[in-house]
Every structure is written in C-alpha cells, then in structure tokens.
Write a structure and sequence with these properties.
The structure is a single chain. The protein is 18% helix and 33% strand. It is an alpha+beta fold and 554 residues long. It has 3 domains: 196 residues, Rossmann fold, CATH 3.40.50.1110; 92 residues, Immunoglobulins (Immunoglobulin-like), CATH 2.60.40.10; 203 residues, Immunoglobulin-like (Sandwich), CATH 2.60.40. Strand 20 and strand 21 form a beta hairpin. Helix 3 packs across helix 8 and helix 7 crosses helix 8. The radius of gyration is 25 Å and the shape is globular.
C-alpha cells in the first residue's frame, strides 16, 4: 500500500478532477423540504447537508426544513423567501390513523392525494422553484403499534404510483425513496427493523433516505449551475468497517479497516470539524489495512452531550465512488456501586446569550418551576438477574388527558440491552426498550408502563406508583421471561445504555422535558441511542466518559 498526503490548499482543485459528472444541486441553492414527521425529524436533511458540505467546502446551499409532524397532503406549507428547489414527501398521514379491512379500496384516497400534490407542484413552480418528489415511505405491517399500520402498505404503494405519474406529467424529478428504503430494510438482520413503530424510519433508515437523495442528485458532482443528472456511480470495491466503537483516551482517533475486494487504487478524502485531507491508497485483493483519520486532537474534542460527524469518501479514477458518515458522540460512563446507581434531575441554568446549551428546547430552566429546581430522583438497582428502577417526580399538577402519550405527564425511559456489536447502533431493534410510564389521577391514582418500542419486554415489565402531596412516586422493573424461551438477566451484559426523561405538562401551553443526561437530542429518541449513559457493569471503561463511533456507508 502507498499513500500521498495532499496539502489543504490543493485539495479542492484535485478533488474536482476526481468527482464524476455534474450535480443536480446548484451553488446558492435554497432547498426547502416539506413533509410530515418523517422529514420534520430532521435526520436525513442534516446528513445530506453534512455530506454536501464535505464534497463542496464553502458552498452557499441552504437547507430549509419546513416539514410539520402529523400533517397530510392537504397541509399548506408556509413559504419564506424564494426557494429554488422544493422537495415533497407526504402521504403517510393520508393512509394511517384508520382501521382497514383485509382488502381496502384506496382509489378515493389516491385521487384526493393526486389533486393535493398537483396543487403543491403547481404552486411551487409558480414561485420559480424546481420540484423534486419523493415516493412516500411505506409502513411495516409486521409491527403492531399506536399507529395501527395493518393493511396500509397497499395504500402507500398506490400513492407512490401517483407520485411517479405526477412526475411524468409535470416534468418533476422523482426520487424512489420508498423503494430504496425497502431494499435497505430487506438487508437488515433478524433483530432490526427500519421502522420500529411500523411507521417512522429510525436512525440509519433515515440515513438511507439521505443515501437516495445524495446519489440521485449526484451530490459529489460539480456545481456547474445546471440541473444535471448523472448516473449513480458504482461503489469502490473496498469493504470499510470501524476498528473500535469507543474513543476512550484523549489521543484516541477514528480507525477504519479497509479490505480490497479486488486490486484497487483510490483517492480518500476526509473532513472533520473544519479540517480536511486527502490520501491515495492502493490495495490488493483481500488485503486488509488499518487507516487512522489524521485530524488534530482538537478536532476530536467533544463535551458530554455533544456530537460531531466525520465524512470519508473513496473515489477511483474510473468514476467509482463510496462515502461514509461517521457519527461521534460524547457520553457519560457510570459504574454501579454494589449494583446500584442514583441520579437527580434538576432544572439547568438558562444559557447566556451566545452560549451553547446541550439541553432540549423544552427544558424548564432554573427558577421557572413553581415546584422548584429539583424535578425528580432516580434509583437503579440490580437484584440477581432482575433490574429495578424507582424514583420521585415533583409536580403539583398532573395532566393526563392528552391522547398523545409524549404530550402528557409521563416518564420516558430508554434502555439499550443489545449485546456486543449491536449496542449503541443508531437503528433501534427489538432489544432497545423505550418505555412510557404515565400517571393518572382519577378516579384513583394509577400508573401505566407501555413498551413504546421493544414490545417483547412487556411480558417482563412491572410498574407501580403512588400520589404524594408534592408529585408522585414511581416504580418500574424487569423480572421473569421476555419470551417463553428467554428470561431477562441483566448479569449477561457487560454494559447497557440508559436515559430517563421527565415530561411535565401543565395545560396546553406548558410542556417541559428534562432528562438524566443533558442532550439536545433527548426529545428525539432515535438520535439519542449513541448518547445514552453507558452503565459499565463490569468496569470495562478506564474513565467516566467516552466517545462512541458509528459508521454508515453511502
């Protein structure tokens, strides 16, 4: 293997010679994304932006997310300024929220959908924007959830046909988001689901949506000012894997393993925290080498609750291209004492103007709660194979009326019980348990523990609680069998991930969320999976912090 490191000054010129074709994007683009919660989540937009910034440093492309959760195709998106490009991914909420017979007739819904989308297309074109249509993602009918996805797939497939027809009729580019997401879902292992609740693409499934956008719009191509479409380039024949999931020491860096599927020579370009570099690498067939991302120690620095994304791309002289998004997240490591842990949840100090806050936008800051700054306490203890959690919430007004469980008083607990290499993965699977524990005050005080994700744990979940003059006590635990052949046993795990959020709802206009771990992602569960507090049961970590590393290939 041989390498040659380019200077930063010569990188952009050298890169432009290797990037194939022209991009659909134009420099100075104002891309407005419209859609429902799948887009509002903002995961695929952020991934697209990060990779576009990698391929085109200094670009002036704006990415404006105007999606709103819960809306259907009738929703009129508020347009600010003059977007040059508008993407539309709507349809999920036109189909779900209903109970259907075995053979539903979606023709009426499809016709209504067609009229709505055509109005959107005509309007966006009238203000000078180019319109890109995404086929709406499908449901997973295997999953029984709050959203009742049973018998809905055919309806969404029909809406996809409508989108393709409108694309031809109105001369709009159509990106087959749904079809390519299905191909990704088919590639997952038996434990994983692209849509753990049957509806919302989670984690890496969102990255797969970004993959479709980036490839079909040729994000790596030249920004010539035209709307050019180039063929999706074949991947570089190299297998890429992360060497380690954790960066524990101050000098630890990302290490990737490259294995040549054939004799290959490629140019590698990386970027992280404003630093960039390029190397040329040659590999023989079946040759494996380790490569360390050579950014400075400063580029790898993270505070607990923060994250960064590195990008690495591989390109060959004959136009092959692969690229990788590497998520870095700094998190806490806690070590039980005699199998026990204790936490307090307090309202944080409000950040001063210009200061970075790691807390949710819904955080109740110090001095704002009538009940005081202490929001709650948490105790975790092991009892042989069993795991018990308990605590208190200080809340003078319990609101239990909202139909949406996230929108009323409750506790949200995230526990990642995945063993080995599955732990911390951004795609939720069956061994991630997201639990909603909600109190009710009338006709008497009661608590419900609902397995929002990881429903198989419902069989070994126990909950209880009681009203107190200053709030309520809660109790929750795991004991017994998960399935008829699998017993819950915390002793089998070296580590597990944990976070707990207290949702405090005091009427329609007051919604607060504070968690054990301060992080801006705690109001979006899928983006918290690599930032959960790591419970180090067997003292495997050298300190009380670590950086987790996730690598997704595009």
């Amino acid at each position: 293997m041989w390498r040659k490191l380019s200077s930063a000054a010569g990188l952009v010129c050298a890169f432009s010679l290797w990037a194939g074709g022209e991009s659909y994007f134009r420099d100075g683009e104002r891309w407005m994304l419209t859609g429902d919660s799948i887009t509002s989540n903002d995961t695929y937009r952020r991934a697209v932006k990060r990779i576009v910034d990698h391929f085109h440093p200094g670009n002036k492309i704006e990415f404006i997310n105007r999606a709103v959760w819960g809306v259907d195709a009738a929703f009129k998106t508020k347009v600010e300024g003059r977007p040059t490009m508008v993407s539309v991914m709507l349809g999920m909420n036109n189909i779900i929220h209903c109970e259907y017979p075995h053979t539903p007739d979606f023709s009426k819904k499809a016709e209504e959908y067609r009229k709505r989308i055509e109005k959107h297309v005509d309007f966006y074109k009238s203000i000078g924007a180019d319109v890109v249509l995404f086929t709406p993602t499908l449901t997973d009918e295997r999953v029984s959830s709050f959203f009742s996805p049973m018998y809905t797939r055919k309806g969404l497939e029909k809406l996809g046909e409508v989108i393709r027809g409108i694309g031809k009729e109105k001369n709009c580019l159509v990106i087959p988001v749904a079809e390519e997401l299905e191909a990704y879902d088919d590639s997952l292992g038996p434990n994983q689901l692209a849509r753990i609740d049957g509806v919302h693409p989670y984690g890496e499934a969102q990255y797969r949506i970004a993959w479709s956008i980036l490839h079909h719009l040729n994000a790596a191509g030249k920004l010539t000012g035209k709307r050019a479409l180039s063929p999706v380039p074949p991947p570089v024949p190299v297998e890429v894997a992360r060497n380690s999931f954790y960066l524990n020491g101050p000098g630890d860096k990302i290490v990737l393993k490259f294995r040549g599927k054939e004799d290959v020579r490629f140019r590698l370009t990386w970027s992280l925290a404003g630093e960039r570099g390029t190397e040329e690498i040659a590999l023989g067939k079946d040759q494996t080498v380790s490569w360390t991302l050579p950014a400075s120690d400063r580029a790898f620095e993270l505070a607990v609750g923060d994250q960064k994304q590195a990008v690495v791309d591989l390109q060959t002289a004959d136009g092959k291209l692969s690229f990788y998004l590497i998520d870095l997240a700094r998190t806490r490591v806690v070590k039980p004492v005699d199998g026990e842990l204790n936490f307090t949840i307090k309202a944080p100090e409000k950040p001063q103007k210009g200061e970075r806050s790691f807390h949710s936008k819904y955080a109740s800051f110090a001095g704002t709660r009538p009940e005081g700054d202490l929001i709650g306490t948490v105790n975790i203890r092991e009892d042989g194979p069993n795991l018990w959690l308990s605590g208190r919430v200080y809340d003078s007004m319990i609101d239990h009326d909202a139909y949406w469980i996230y929108g009323r008083d409750c506790l949200r607990i995230l526990l990642d019980f995945r063993p080995g290499g599955r732990f911390g993965n951004l795609t939720i699977d069956r061994d991630v348990n997201v639990v909603m524990i909600s109190p009710r005050t009338v006709p008497h005080f009661a608590m419900i523990a609902l397995a929002w994700n990881g429903s198989r744990y419902q069989h070994c979940m126990y909950s209880d609680g009681e009203r107190t003059p200053d709030g309520y006590k809660w109790f929750y635990g795991y004991a017994g069998h998960i399935t008829n052949y699998t017993a819950f046993d915390i002793r089998k795990l070296d580590v597990y991930g944990f976070n707990l959020s207290v949702i405090d709802r005091d009427g329609k206009k007051s919604f607060h969320l504070n968690s054990v771990m301060p992080t801006v992602f705690d109001d979006t569960a899928e983006r918290a999976l690599n930032q959960l507090i790591i419970v180090d049961r067997k003292n495997k970590f050298p300190g009380n912090e670590t950086t987790t590393v996730q690598c997704f290939g595009f």
